[in-house]
Amino acid sequence: MLKFYFNGSPNPTKVALFLEEAGLPYEPVPVDTRRGQQFDPAYLAINPNGKVPVIVDDGIAVFDSNAILLYLAEKTGKFLPENSPVARAEMLSWLMFVATGVGPYSGQAVHFKHYAPEKIPYAEKRYLYESARHFGLLDARLAQRPYIVGDSYTIVDMDAWGWARMIPFIFGDGAWDKFPNLKRHHDGIGARPAAVRAVALKERFAFKTGMDAEAMAHMYKHIGA
């Protein structure tokens, strides 16, 4: 059975969404990054980068959420756009847009706004601006279309949804007012039974919730150096 190494953060949650949508049987394996479990030698053997998520499928390890989504979609033939060069080009472009822009900028915005041990106004402003700019591009993309690529629900929508769920936490109250089309897209996916199950998956395990000194040292190792 496919093993899914995860926690409740955005990147594993979008993979959980695919697994639930596709009805793939899987064994969830919790990795508590606030307790440093991502640095266990056995885990680093399957993901040298020491992050979540990872899947191990019939002995094949795949890490990075975007790689996993593409791997599973191509293996199952599910949640891909129509079979045309144009559609595939759009899928890859927007998938990498989330991978290289939305995710990294949003993650850094969260860090500098909520968890940095010292306030660095330039860094906070920079990452908040870039994350808002990337979400704004998704919002504009969705202004006259139901989904990001083509006319059907694909892995690109799952990819964007994983991070769009964080918009209020990133920007604060009223943030959704700036992204009405993305809000419609987010709400539609979030109401799907598979999405409800994906979000609830973490509740079955006892993850560390507080961001104390121990968690900070594991999450941001330079702090404890």
Number of strands: 4
CATH class of the largest domain: Mainly Alpha
| CATH architecture classification name of the largest domain | Up-down Bundle
Number of domains: 2
Mean pLDDT: 95
Give the end-to-end Cα distance, rounded to a whole number of Å.
39 Å
- The order of strands across the largest sheet is 2-1-3-4
Structural class: alpha+beta
Stated plainly, the CATH topology of the largest domain is called Glutathione S-transferase Yfyf (Class Pi), Chain A, domain 2
Fill in the keyword field for this structure.
alpha+beta; Glutaredoxin; 10 helices; 4 strands; 8% strand
Tell me about this structure.
By secondary structure, this protein is of the alpha+beta class. It has two domains: 2-78 and 197-224, 3-Layer(aba) Sandwich (Glutaredoxin), CATH 3.40.30; 85-191, Glutathione S-transferase Yfyf (Class Pi), Chain A, domain 2 (Up-down Bundle). Helix content is 54%, strand content 8%. It has ten helices and four strands. A four-stranded mixed sheet has the order 2-1-3-4, with helices on one face. Strand 1 (2-6), helix 1 (10-22) and strand 2 form a beta-alpha-beta unit.
